[in-house]
# Entry
Amino acid sequence: MSFEHLLLHIEQGVARLTLNRPERLNSFTPALHAELRAALERLRRDDRVRAVLLTGAGRGFCAGQDLGERSVAPDEGAPDLGESLEHHYNPLIRQLRELPLPVVCAVNGVAAGAGANLALACDIVLAARSASFVQAFCRIGLLPDCGGSWLLPRLVGMARAKGLALLGERLSAEQAEQWGLIWRCVDDDALADEALALARHLASQPTYGLALTKRALHASADNSLDEQLDLERDLQRLAGRSEDYREGVGAFLAKRPPQFKGR
Ligand code: LHQ
# Structure
């Protein structure tokens, strides 16, 4: 499978996906959307792949929608941006959230608009110290999309979510870490290695259990404690039937490192 705007490299259980339109800060076009979704679908079906690492080429991570495609002439009718969300962005965010694999995002530079919220939709977000997050939507008359209006208040609380979304100021990676928006901010020259090491670690872990963990945490946003307890019971039942659970307990009792197969 070859791509024009995306690089895909699979090694040691990790699929590294690199958004590759650096001259436009890896902003999204329909073609990039189509490629990224096709790649994620392929990874979901590939048994060799047990973790995904998403990053950007060049000095930015992703500047959201390519606005070059969006200029509207005065005599043109209003565009239907809802169509773009329905057909491109929303399926992408759902696909990432539902992927039964851990997704690490290495934010190598600015993440703006949909690019910022794409990063936040990943499971573990590392960012280079020089990277930043911009809810740029308000600067062009839009509201946060790609799940941003749902995720931001849950990650950083309503006061900070409103500040970010209504002001559209750059938030540094360090501040993002301090606020709990991301997992960790690391030195620029360490980002690629640390992100890969993290993804490789995750790829050696009980993949099915991690997928169930993702499901439970996502569901918690809308569940009562009672509902969540029931869900934990049901998912733990499934986890307990996995080969990796058997291996984990066996290895613990035998005082040896486990060899998880992801099943
Ligand atoms: C760009 C872009 C860009 C094209 C930088 N497009 N060229 C969903 C539904 C449907 C439609 C609408 O959108 C959405 C979701 C969204 O994502 S809405 C939000 C769209 N994104 C933005 O509004 C961000 C626009 N970009 C910026 O504000 C800045 O470029 C940021 C803060 C990202 C980076 O600033 P700088 O580091 O100062 O870089 P720069 O502005 O100089 O950009 C570098 C180049 O990249 C430049 O091209 P040039 O030819 O002058 O070198 C920019 O024009 C281009 N670029 N973002 N989204």
Notes: The two ends are 26 Å apart (CA to CA). The domain at 6-203 is CATH 3.90.226.10 (2-enoyl-CoA Hydratase; Chain A, domain 1). The longest helix spans residues 81-98.
